[in-house]
Design goal:
Elements: H1 4-39, E1 43-45, E2 50-52, H2 57-61
Antiparallel strand pairs: 1-2
Length: 93
């Protein structure tokens, strides 16, 4: 029997074992923490591998949340603008 066959068999078994260990390590260190974090309703950052809690903008700025039915601020009429170079019609003081 050729001596290369048992050697190739060991190489393939070794590559298979390393691939299995790599896949399990990927599951343990990346996939399972992400799934636990997202199940709690938090945000997962894959670059830093950090589970972050979303913070409401009103907690940062101190302003209250706008009710859903409230009219948007952009719907209000904007103040009239005077074109550059145009003179005002009001008398000067």
């Amino acid at each position: 029997m050729n001596a290369a066959i048992p050697r190739l068999k060991l190489i393939f078994v070794g590559v298979f074992a390393v691939a299995c260990v790599f896949i399990w390590a990927l599951q343990i260190f990346y996939v399972w923490p992400r799934d636990r974090c997202e199940a709690r309703g938090n945000w997962w950052d894959p670059q830093a591998r950090v589970c972050a809690t979303p913070i409401s903008l009103s907690k940062i700025t101190g302003r209250p949340n706008k009710p859903v039915g409230a009219p948007a601020a952009s719907a209000a009429q904007p103040a009239p603008r005077v074109a550059p170079g145009a003179h005002s019609t009001s008398p000067a003081p």
